[in-house]
Design a protein that fits this description.
Helix content is about 40%, strand content about 15%. The protein has about 170 residues and is of the alpha+beta class. Helix 2 (about 95-110) packs antiparallel against helix 3, helix 2 crosses helix 5 (about 135-155) and helix 3 packs across helix 5 (about 135-155). The longest helix has 18 residues, at about 95-110.
């Protein structure tokens, strides 16, 4: 259990009184949901069950995802105490690029684009003949992107931010 010793002042501009820094706060049936800007296009999302709490408490299940949760708590503490928030390393640059391409390919397919049209946009491929397209590596890459994008849309996105386990 992590307890913050120094309690920041309560903000008056929030939807509900909160000890968290300025951000978007929404009340739901289960408590307060906070979305904080961590800088560098990073955000932290925090759930606060008891809005009247004087200190925030983090309960960390000691399962295989415990390390990822501890890293998230570390990023939260950095935000709360005005330190630089470390980069979330769960998604490498390559994984972010692939996820972006999967979304582009999936959106194109839903909009009715052919695989060749998707390849032209995603890979900035110039127009190729039908024969060249049949053996083009981009054709197989688009097929893989569409296959993996379907898995993500059907619930696989939940595994996207799960930490890599190194044993």
């Amino acid at each position: 259990m992590v307890v913050l010793q120094k309690v920041p002042k309560v903000l008056s501009g929030a939807v509900e009184p909160t000890i968290l820094p300025e951000g978007t706060t929404r009340r739901a049936q289960d408590g307060l949901h906070h979305l904080l800007d961590a800088g560098g296009q990073r955000r932290l999302q925090i759930f606060q069950e008891d809005p009247d709490a004087k200190a925030l408490v983090a309960i960390v299940p000691l399962d295989q995802d415990g390390f990822a949760r501890l890293n998230a708590i570390y990023r939260l503490l950095a935000q709360l105490h005005g330190r630089k928030v470390p980069v979330d390393k769960r998604l490498t640059r390559q994984k972010r690029l692939r996820a972006k391409r999967m979304l582009q390919a999936y959106d194109g397919r839903v909009a009715g684009a052919s695989q060749r049209e998707i390849a032209e946009v995603v890979f900035r491929l110039s127009r190729v003949s039908r024969d060249e397209w049949q053996s083009a590596p981009e054709r197989f890459a688009v097929m893989a992107l569409l296959r993996d994008a379907r898995k993500m849309v059907q619930g696989g996105y939940c595994t996207l931010l799960r930490s890599r386990r190194v044993y």
